[in-house]
Amino acid sequence: MQRRDRDSGILQSLGKPLTKRVKESRVLLVGAGGIGCEVLKNLVCCGFGTLPQAQHGLNGATAETQSGHTAVMPRQPGIVVIDLDTIDLSNLNRQFLFRKQHIKKPKAFVAKETASQFNPSVNIEAHHASVFDRQYNVEFFEGFDLVFNALDNLAARRHVNKMCLAADVPLIESGTTGFNGQVQAIKKGVTECYDCNPKPVQKSFPICTIRSTPSQPIHCIVWARSYLFPELFGTSEEDSTDVGVTEADSAEEVAKLKVEAEALKNVRRMMGKSEFAQEVFDKVFHDDIERLRSMSEMWQSRKPPQSLRYDALKAEIDADIIKHGQALATRDQTTWSLHDNLAVLCYSLDVLSSRAQTGEPVIEFDKDDKDTLDFVASAANLRSHVFGIPLHSEWEIKQMAGNIIPAIATSNALTASLCVMEAFKIMRSQAQAQNGLSKPNANNNHPTTTQSSMIGKPEPTLGGAKMVFLNSRSTERMVTTQGLVPPRPDCPVCSPVYAKLAVSANTNATLQDLVLLLQQRVGYDEFSITTDAGVIYDPDLEDNLPKQLTEYASAAQGNSFVTVTDESDLPKVDLVLSMMVQSTTDGADSLQVIPEQISLPLKPQKAPEVDGDLDGDADPEPVLLPNAGAKRKRDAEEEVEGAKKRAKAGKAEVLEVDDDGVITLDDD
Q1: How many other CB atoms are there within 10 angstroms of residue 376's CB atom?
Q2: 59 known member of a binding site
Q3: Is residue 338 assigned to a domain?
Q4: From 68-72, 92-96, 289-293, 543-547, the region with the lowest mean pLDDT
Q5: How far apart (Å, rounded) are the C-alpha atoms in residues 366 and 373?
Q6: Which of 378, 400, 422 is where one domain is finished?
Q7: Which stretches make up the Ubiquitin/SUMO-activating enzyme ubiquitin-like domain (predicted)?
């Protein structure tokens, strides 16, 4: 009865064709944190991937075989969730699929368990792993109808963006910053990709990355500044959070949680005693690190941290450790060694302890407060050493230390709901294409609409999907939209042509064979080949030609790519190959480019530079940039309309040039 009521509501909202498409879909969700939990809940409640495989028929993914033929691969409709993180106490105030008894458990597994209770019919597959792992290759992404990004870092977002471009799968990118949020639909050759526009330097960082898997110096700085320092000298996270115990909570798990929460409090109570520095050091750099090391699944694809012991390091310092630290603290532009950082930490703990016991019970971090900066710099460097991250001088750390923008549960929920709304639009366009109700517009120069073959009406791209924004500054309309923008012609990520390079596992093919294959099949003359390790071939670099291709393929297969760049006078766009090492079948070539027919258009010519000091005898011509931003487009439209009016009046027209020397006009 409950399922019938659920289905009837969905049918009334979406209609039968779209509901069927939603139920038989297979979608990938990368990230099960703040936005990811909300997206998964919405997907489950809306019935994504609930159609049993027996009813799914032949609507499976298609893939090229080694012989170049297309094969239908049966697949199970459902939702696949990938997340590397484990649940932390600080997640519970905004990631509502998790409870206190779930702390330290993998997010993906718990999210699957909890979300399945909303809709037992859904098929959820959880992966506690990194999306960078080798098994998540192009073929893996090709098995999905749609991919959702709910990630917390720039590198992973860019990686998933490129994988979806290579697999030609639609991607819904999302993110929040405080009260603001954004949702963007991305499709190869149709819309701009995540990397079409440069991204600002990330200034906010997720707590889960800071606490468990730091990979950059800023992660360690934020950990020392916003977690360890407040716990010892400021307002404890436990003191500022009202946590209640419910009847559903396990008494044993609650007891363990209280013991863990009291650990740093007990260390804080030892402030003023001679062993205070040692207790702090061994707690955060030995005991906590050993607990992280015990989670073996977290370190399957990355180097585990190495714990430190206070006694072992102090024994190697032949001086009074506090006086030594005081002298080192004045050398803020020198990168301290491991032992130097220990000395500065002990010195800063001694000074801050005295301040806390003499009328300053709550101390707040200030980059201009030398005592607090000494503590954060030395603690961050020690943590960097533990995780194999390069150390920095106190001066550099002061420059990097910034404010954390808090995660807002409401922003996550709104953004996640907008993600699923955009997914409905994309699914609708897929359903129409599957049933032959729509086809690409004949005008392929500006692929922003499709043409319905039955009713002859222009149909919006991707079913009418748009870029959606949450804007907390607007008092009139919090949710605003913008039409999808076509891809930037010179984008280094989405402008290339993506293909596959199949390499037999037992082949003796060399780099020379690949060069010959590219010359024969693609028609290259002068070109270069680049991998993640750098350039391996160009017309002036032939040392690697005798090397076997499996040497490069084993390192590049999976989620890495090989880029072929045309070096001729009229260069074609880049060819990006995902390399696959696979077993040889009878009659199959040991080295193949898939598909067999590859067409590479010429690279767009760079727009000519416009001199701001124009010669009076020459008429300036506007440069058309199809990827201009919305504001600049509106400005340009106003300029064009004004130019037309004045032209009709017989007046000469001179267009004003932007500061960057480029005139931008809408290309509609």
Answers
A1: 27
A2: no
A3: yes
A4: 68-72
A5: 7
A6: 400
A7: 508-578
Q: Are 149 and 169 spatial neighbours (Cβ–Cβ below 8 Å)? A: no
Q: Where are the alpha helices (DSSP H) in 241-369?
A: 251-268, 276-282, 288-293, 310-314, 321-329, 338-357
- What gap in Å lies between CA 164 and CA 189, rounded to an integer? 12
Answer yes or no: is 611 within a domain: yes
Which is the catalytic residue, given 37, 208, 220, 346? 208
Is 154 labelled as part of a ligand binding site? Answer: yes
Backbone angles phi, psi at 585, to 5 degrees: -100, 155
Question: Which residues have C-beta within 8 Å of that of residue 318, sequence separation ≥ 6?
Answer: none
What six digits make up the tokens of 400? 């990097």
Q: How far is CA 483 from CA 448, 495, 665, in A?
A: 9, 20, 16
* Domain interval for residue 642: 607-668
Residue whose entry in the numeric block shows the structure tokens 């090391």: 293
**Number of folded domains in the chain?**
4
pTM score, whole prediction: 0.64
**Residue-wise pLDDT tens digits, 125-167:** 999 998 988 889 999 999 999 999 999 888 899 999 999 999 9
Q: What confidence tens digit (pLDDT) does each residue in 462-484 have?
A: 889 999 999 877 777 889 999 99
CA distances from 95 to 160, 364, 406 (A): 22, 28, 13
Let me know: does 329 contact 370? Beta carbons within 8 Å.
yes
Structure tokens belonging to residue 117: 């209770």
Q: Are residues 448 and 466 in the same domain?
A: yes
Exposure letters 531-564 (e unless 16+ CB within 10 A, then b): beeeebbeeeeeebeeeebbebbeebbbbbbbbb
Q: Establish whether 463 is an annotated binding residue.
A: no
CA-to-CA distance for 233 and 351, rounded, in angstroms?
Answer: 11
Domain assignment of residue 34, yes or no: yes
Is 155 marked within a binding site? yes
Q: What are the structure tokens assigned to 309, written together?
A: 């012991």
